[in-house]
Amino acid sequence: MAAIIDDINKTRQDHILTIEDPIEYQFEQEKCIIDQREVGVDCLNFQSGLRAMFREDVDICMIGEMRDPETIATAMTAAETGHLILSTLHTNTASQTIDRIIDSFPPHQQAQVRSQMASTLLGVISRRLVPCKDGGVINAIELMIANSAIRNLIREGKVHQIDMVIDTSSEEGMISLNRSLADLVKRGIVDQEKAINFSPNPNEFNMLTQ
What we know:
Rossmann fold, single chain, alpha/beta, four-stranded parallel sheet, 10 helices
C-alpha cells in the first residue's frame, strides 16, 4: 500500500490520512498533504482514527489493517461518502477477501454489507511471496477489478463465482493467482513444485502449466 500512496503523492493533489499500527514507512510530502497517525499514540484504535477523518477534509485514507467489524463498517461508510479507502486483510485471494469482510458481520447484517460492498468496492489485490529458483522471493499477484459482473455477484451472495469472472476478464486487466503462478513457472523464475503450494486450485494450476 505504501507504493500506491507514494504514487498518488507524486501524481495527485489530495489530502491523505494514514492510520497504522505501527507506522512502517514515513512519507515525504510532494504533491499531497499526508497525515500519518499511529494507533495507541495519535488515536485509540483504527475505528476512532477513522471516525476523526469525517471531521477533516480528507480525500484518501490508508488503514493499516481492518481487524474488526466496527472498523470495516466505518471504512465502508467513508467509501460511500466519496473517500478512497485502502486497507489490508490476511487473505489469499480476492474472493476470500470479500467473504472475510461479509462473514465478519452477523447474518442479519450481511445483506446490507453485500449491498454496500457492491456499490463501493473498486478492486482487490492479493499477493503471495513465492520462493524463486535463485533463493529470493517474488510476488504472485491476483488482481480483481470490481466490474458490473462482480458487483452483481457480491450483491447476490454468489462470491464463489468471482474466480470465474477473474479468469475470463484478462482484457480488463484482471489476473488470477493461478495464472500469475503459472506465468512465473513458464518464465523459469519459480519451480512448479514450489508454486503449487501457493495455488488455490492445484488442478487448474497444473493445467495452466502444461
